[in-house]
Amino acid sequence: MDTIVIIGYIAGTLTTISFIPQVVRAWKLKETRDLSLAMLILFAAGILLWTCYGFWTESLPIIAANVITFILILVLLGLKIRYK
Amino acid sequence: MDTIVIIGYIAGTLTTISFIPQVVRAWKLKETRDLSLAMLILFAAGILLWTCYGFWTESLPIIAANVITFILILVLLGLKIRYK
Fold first, then answer.
1. For residues B10 and A52, is the Cβ–Cβ distance under 8 A?
2. ipTM
3. Residue-range domains of chain B with CATH
């Protein structure tokens, strides 16, 4: 595997798993007041487009990272709406 | 300009500017309790690698988006450390 593809996978893994501690924190604290709703909505929209970009450019690291990130952001959005 | 480059720029603009309302919120509330420090650190590390990926693949949307995002995440990290 090319070095750059490996770097892409590590980058995607880091930015993707970074949202796991955020989901856990929101879940545990049952508080999301300090999370910006605008941030979550804009970020989700951007991640959807990054996924398109990944498919178009056939970049598997970009596709994989963004699909999982999108799911985590949807969970955060749900928690934000539930625990205002 | 290719359609896909435009989509990449819109995607990058959305995921990048999404952190502006988050910075504003942390700044105004002077509270970052609900923000996960682990999220910010992992995300910053990932964004640095995405920037490398962008340079290597000569993808200007990826470079531009990630450099600005990195700066905004550093500001958020600063606010997180200041307002625990």
1. no
2. 0.86
3. 3-82 (1.20.1280.290)
